[in-house]
Design a protein that fits this description.
Blueprint (H helix, E strand, L loop, with lengths): L14 E4 L6 E9 L3 H8 E3 L13 E6 L5 E10 L10 E8 L1 H13 L3 E2 L4 H8 L5 H12 L3 H12 L1 H25 L7 H23 L1 H9 L1 E7 L5 H9 L17 E7 L2 E7 L9 H15 L3 E7 L5 H9 L7 E6 L7 H9 L2 E3 L8 H13 L14 H22 L4 H19 L5 H8 L7
Parallel strand pairs: 1-7, 8-10, 8-11, 11-12, 12-13
Antiparallel strand pairs: 1-2, 2-6, 3-4, 4-5, 5-6, 9-10
Helix pairs in contact: 4-5, 6-7, 6-15, 7-14, 14-15
C-alpha cells in the first residue's frame, strides 16, 4: 500500500498517554494528540494568568489541573502545539505535573473519562510517520535511541534519527529508478533500442549500485553488535581463573570463586560497558574430561554457548609445568578466528623461557589475584570489539534485521538485472528486476508499507513513544 502524502486521525480520535517512565520523580509528562487535544486541555486547565484569549502555540503556561467536578488535582505546566507543527503532525498538548504515581494517574483518568483514548504502543511515532513528519527508518530510530545504553548505540541511533541513513538509501533508490527509466523508455520506443555501448554503460552503473547496497547490507554484523551487544564467553579448564576474570571485568564479586575445580556448574551472564560498547559477558563451567553428571551438563552448555559467541576468551593456568601442551591440545577443538588467549597466574611464573612461550602462543599473561596485565588485556579486548564495528560517524550502519533483509533482496535484484544486461536478455525482465529492487528499498523508508509491517515495527515500542 502506498503511503499518502498526509493522513489525519480518523473519527475525531484523540489519544493520550503518560510519556515519562513509571515510578516516582520530580516531574511526569502526559501527551494528547488529535483534533480534540486543545478542547480537553481547556476543560481541565486553569491558567495562573488568563486574559480570555486563545492559547498561544508553543507557549509553556503555568496553572492547575482540576477534575470534572472542579476539584484541584495538581499544579502543572502545559503547552499547546497546532496541527501540522507537532511531533505527531496533529494538534497536540503536553502536560507536565509532579511525578507521583497517583497524581499522574488521576490526571490521565480525567482525560480518558472525558473521551480521550489510551494510546497504543508506539502510536505517537506511528502518527508522525503516517503524517509525513518522519520516514519509517527514522521512526525505527526513535525506539533505538530511547533504548540506547552505550555511547556506540547512541551514536548509531542518533545518526539514523537525523536522516543521514535514510538520505543514503534514498539516493541508491533514485539511482536504481534512473536506470530503470532508461530501460523502460527503450521498451516504450523500440526504435530507440539500447546499443551495445549503452548496455555496457548501464551495466557499469548497476554494478556500482549493487556494490553500494552490498556494502550497506554487510554492515549489519557491526550494527547487530551495536544494537544487541557483543557476546564474550570466558571459557577454559576448571580452576584456571574464569570466574575471577569475570569478576574483575565487572568490577564486583558476581561469580563464586573457590579453589576446588568445577565450582561453576552453569553459566553466569552480565552486561558491562567496554570502551563504549555493550558487552554480554558470560562465565561458563570449566571444560575437562571428567566430572559428575551436573558438571558435565554445565560443560555441554558451555560448549553450546561458545559456538554462538562473538569472541571466546580462553583462559589457561600458566603456573603449571605442562600448560603449553594442554593449551595446544585444547586449541585443536576451538575456532581460533574467534579466540583470544589469556594466561592466568603470571604472579606465580618465574623464568624468561616461559615468558617467550607467551609470545609464541599469542597469549596475554595476567594475574587475577594481583591485577597484573589486566590493563593490557582490556585494551586488546576493546580493540577486538572495535575490529568488528564500523566507523559510526557516517551513520551508514544497518542495525535492523528487517533492513538487512530488504537490502539483500535489492542486491539480488540488481545483480540479476546486471547479468541480464550483459547477456542481452529481454528489457522487460531487466525492468522487472529493477522494480523489485526499488520496491525493497521503498519498504525500508516507508514509501510502501503494509499494516503488518507497521504492527511489527510499532508493536515493539512502549506506550508513550
Amino acid at each position: 500500500m502506498s503511503r499518502p502524502h498526509k493522513t489525519t486521525h480518523s473519527d475525531n480520535d484523540t489519544i493520550v498517554a503518560i510519556i515519562t517512565p513509571p515510578g516516582e520523580g520530580g516531574i511526569a509528562a502526559l501527551r494528547l494528540a488529535g483534533p480534540q487535544s486543545l478542547r480537553f486541555l481547556s476543560r481541565f486547565f486553569r491558567p495562573s494568568q488568563s486574559d480570555n484569549t486563545e492559547p498561544a502555540a508553543f507557549l509553556l503556561r503555568h496553572g492547575c489541573f482540576v477534575s470534572g467536578e472542579n476539584e484541584f488535582l495538581d499544579e502543572i505546566m502545559a503547552v499547546y502545539m497546532p496541527h501540522g507543527k507537532s511531533y505527531t503532525g496533529l494538534e497536540q498538548v503536553e502536560i507536565f505535573c509532579h511525578g507521583g504515581r497517583q497524581v499522574v494517574r488521576l490526571i490521565l483518568d480525567q482525560l480518558v473519562a472525558a473521551g480521550a483514548r489510551m494510546a497504543e504502543p508506539g502510536e505517537f511515532t506511528k502518527l508522525a510517520f503516517l503524517n509525513g513528519r518522519i520516514d519509517l527508518a527514522r521512526a525505527e530510530a526513535v525506539a533505538e535511541l530511547i533504548a540506547a545504553n552505550t555511547q556506540s548505540s547512541y551514536e548509531a541511533s542518533r545518526e539514523h534519527l537525523t536522516g543521514v541513513y535514510s538520505e543514503h538509501v534514498t539516493r541508491i533508490r533514485d539511482e536504481i529508478v534512473g536506470v530503470m527509466s532508461e530501460i523502460e523508455a527503450a521498451i516504450d520506443f523500440p526504435e530507440d533500442e539500447i546499443a551495445p555501448a549503452g548496455r555496457t554503460e548501464l551495466s557499469a552503473r548497476l554494478d556500482s549500485i549493487s556494490s553500494q547496497i552490498s556494502i550497506l547490507a554487510d554492515s549489519y554484523n557491526a550494527g547487530r553488535i551495536i544494537k544487541e551487544g557483543f557476546k564474550i564467553v570466558i571459557a577454559g579448564r576448571p580452576n584456571a581463573g574464569k570466574s575471577s576474570l569475570f569478576n574483575l571485568l565487572l568490577r564486583h564479586e558476581r561469580a563464586l570463586v573457590n579453589p576446588a575445580p568445577g565450582t561453576t556448574r552453569d553459566y553466569l551472564s552480565e552486561w558491562v560497558d567496554i570502551d563504549g560498547f555493550a558487552v554480554n559477558l558470560i562465565d561458563t563451567a570449566g571444560i575437562r574430561e571428567r566430572g559428575g553428571k551436573v558438571e558435565r551438563m554445565g560443560q555441554e552448555r558451555a560448549r553450546s554457548i561458545m559456538k554462538h559467541a562473538d569472541l571466546v576468551v580462553w583462559i589457561a593456568d600458566i603456573s603449571t609445568k605442562n600448560w603449553k601442551t594442554v593449551l595446544e591440545r585444547d586449541m585443536t577443538s576451538l575456532d581460533e578466528s574467534r579466540m583470544m588467549l589469556v594466561g592466568n597466574k603470571i604472579d606465580m611464573v618465574r623464568g624468561i623461557a616461559k615468558r617467550r612461550d607467551f609470545i609464541e602462543c599469542k597469549l596475554i599473561p595476567v594475574s587475577c589475584r594481583t591485577g597484573a596485565g589486566l590493563t593490557v588485556f582490556e585494551k586488546e579486548l576493546a580493540a577486538r570489539i572495535r575490529a568488528n564495528v564500523r566507523d559510526l560517524t557516517s551513520g551508514l550502519v544497518v542495525t535492523s534485521a528487517r533492513h538487512r533483509q530488504k537490502l539483500s533482496a535489492a542486491h539480488r535484484a540488481t545483480r540479476s538485472a546486471c547479468m541480464k544486461l550483459g547477456t542481452e536478455e529481454s528489457l522487460d525482465l531487466i525492468a522487472f528486476d529493477l522494480g523489485q529492487a526499488a520496491h525493497a528499498i521503498d519498504e525500508i523508508i516507508g514509501r510502501v508499507y503494509s499494516e503488518e509491517i507497521l504492527e511489527q515495527i510499532f508493536g515493539k515500542f512502549c506506550i508513550g513513544k
